[in-house]
Design brief:
This protein is mostly beta strands. It has a single domain (33-462), classed as Methylamine Dehydrogenase, Chain H. It has one helix and 37 strands. It has one helix spanning 8-32; strands at residues 74-79, 89-91, 94-105, 115-117, 120-122, 127-128, 132-142, 148-158, 163-164, 175-176, 180-184, 190-194, 199-203, 220-222, 225-230, 240-245, 251-256, 267-270, 275-279, 284-288, 295-300, 311-313, 316-321, 327-331, 337-338, 345-349, 360-362, 365-369, 375-379, 385-390, 404-406, 409-413, 418-423, 430-435, 445-447, 450-454, 458-462. The strands form ten sheets. A five-stranded mixed sheet has the order 18-19-20-21-25, with no helix packed on it. Strands 1-37-36-35 form a four-stranded antiparallel sheet, with no helix packed on it. It is globular and about 55 Å long.
């Protein structure tokens, strides 16, 4: 803010100062277009939510292990009860996971919701799970030893809906602020624990119907709010996004969303003078005020299943989906109203995306991975193709884990449990292949110089192990 002065020299100095402040503000705003979620920085030793600091799958740690096997660089390996796809969430010496233990038959007469298409009942050939009883648990492990510190039964009984046979009821990842941890099981509730395993509160959000595919969205934190995106069924009439007081579970705001089932997690973006809660979807892409739920802007959606988490960087939010069509769209946040047809829509791309795994934005490039592990590299600012057709050394499938990146390397983990180390940059190069020894559908977590990989039956800690002091080779 400038002040009028009678002295011309003072006015000149004021003008220079004002211009300097404007330049500085421009630089700061440019740097600030990024994630504004749980408050932990990208260089922190915690991995406090789905996709870690910034919700983007990127660690700034150096010297992390890039080579391992079933016997090499395994610091510890812990048996886990049941099955789950939730990513390890880490704060200090605590690791949090969820799991589903399938039991006996559900009570006779229990029926999940029926679906109809053109007046005829639809039954998906790969629906599963609703005919069984289930125990959903929240588990805490010691980061250094792998010892299970506590496990709490969050829910026990019949489930509201089916899941896909390749899916899992314990798919959403936890989120923590270092004092409390929150876990989410869709129709079967939302749970808040302290770090000693004491239940602080629990809350039902009602029946969440995702056309029998299971839930996938993970909760996010913003200031004192815990936010859940709950897009439902094919008509979207019951879809909503809700913010709860993180300490009590009290509803602060709730907004209807005219969007059918999605499995994506929202991101929080600092768009200069405000924070935007940005959400993906089939019908619409919408940004909200996280404090009130009021809508900032919207654009036409992906017209495809929204599963991938949006990417944030270079002043853009990049949305993607891989089924039934492959599409990406880059949006400049900070707009208002309907931004279709404006310069807020920066670029589009229509190849190379995966059904389930999120892409990753690392440095100047966006890296896409197909279901078969074929990589595409795009310039993040323009969407121009840098390379296509980058392949991993073996034929495999990528229907689960999303990539992570650190130290100029990108790690891709296949359903078979092999992690491929790819050199970041404009040329595709595979630096190594690391077998885990069991299947996995879960993304890697990174904290305090170690990698944490969840397999089908175990949680693995990879880092400096006895007999290998360097640990990174």
């Amino acid at each position: 803010m400038s002040q009028q002065r009678s002295n011309r020299g003072a006015m000149g100095r004021a003008t220079i100062r004002t211009a300097g402040r404007a330049i500085l503000m421009t630089i700061l705003v440019g740097l600030a277009i990024g994630f504004a979620g749980s408050g932990e920085g990208a260089g922190g030793s915690n991995w406090a939510q789905w996709r870690g600091p910034d919700g983007q799958g990127i660690s700034t740690e150096k010297g992390l292990p890039t080579s391992w096997s079933e016997t090499k660089n395994i610091v510890w390996k812990t048996d886990l009860p049941g099955r789950g796809f939730s990513q390890p969430v880490i704060w200090g010496n605590h690791i949090f996971l969820t799991t589903d233990i399938e039991g006996g038959s559900a009570p006779e007469g229990h029926r999940p919701p029926r679906r109809f298409i053109d007046g005829r009942e639809f039954i998906h050939p790969e629906w599963s799970g609703a005919d069984k009883l289930h125990t959903f648990k929240t588990i805490c492990l010691d980061r250094d030893s792998g010892k299970i510190l506590w496990e709490q039964t969050s829910y026990e009984g019949k489930v509201y809906d089916f899941r896909h046979k390749r899916g899992n009821y314990a798919a959403p990842s936890a989120v923590t602020d270092g004092r409390l941890v929150w876990t989410y099981f869709g129709s079967e509730g939302l749970y808040c624990y302290d770090f000693k395993g004491k239940l602080i509160w629990k809350k039902s959000l009602g029946n969440i119907g995702t056309f029998g595919m299971g839930v996938g969205t993970s909760p996010v934190l913003w200031q004192n709010l815990l936010i859940i995106q709950a897009d439902q069924e094919e008509d979207g009439k019951d879809s909503f996004i809700v913010a709860l007081d993180k300490k009590t579970g009290r509803e602060v705001w709730k907004k209807h969303r005219p969007i059918q089932s999605s499995w994506t997690t929202p991101v929080l973006v600092n768009a200069g003078q405000r924070t935007e809660l940005v959400t993906s979807g089939n019908e619409l892409l919408i940004a909200y005020d996280p404090a009130t739920g009021e809508e900032y802007w919207r654009a036409t959606g992906l017209k495809s299943h929204a599963i991938a988490t949006p990417l944030v960087g270079h002043g853009l939010v990049i949305f993607s989906s891989g089924y039934p069509t492959k599409t990406m769209v880059a949006v400049r946040p900070g707009g208002s109203g309907n931004i279709d047809g404006t310069d807020r829509i920066v670029w589009r791309y229509n190849k190379g995306t995966a059904y389930v795994p999120s892409p990753i934005l690392y440095g100047d490039y966006v890296y896409l991975i197909s279901d078969a592990g074929i990589m595409t590299c795009l310039d993040a600012k323009s969407g121009k193709v840098v390379y296509e057709g980058g392949r991993v050394p073996v034929a495999t499938k990528f229907y689960g884990a999303s990539p992570v990146a650190f130290d100029d390397k990108i790690l891709l983990t296949s359903d078979d449990g092999d992690t491929f180390v790819i050199k970041a940059g404009p040329k595709h190069e595979v630096l190594g292949t690391n077998p885990l020894g069991e299947p996995t559908r879960t993304s890697i977590a990174i904290a305090s110089g170690r990698l944490f990989l969840r397999g089908e039956k175990h949680l693995f800690c990879i880092g400096r192990s006895a007999g290998n002091e360097k640990g990174a080779e």
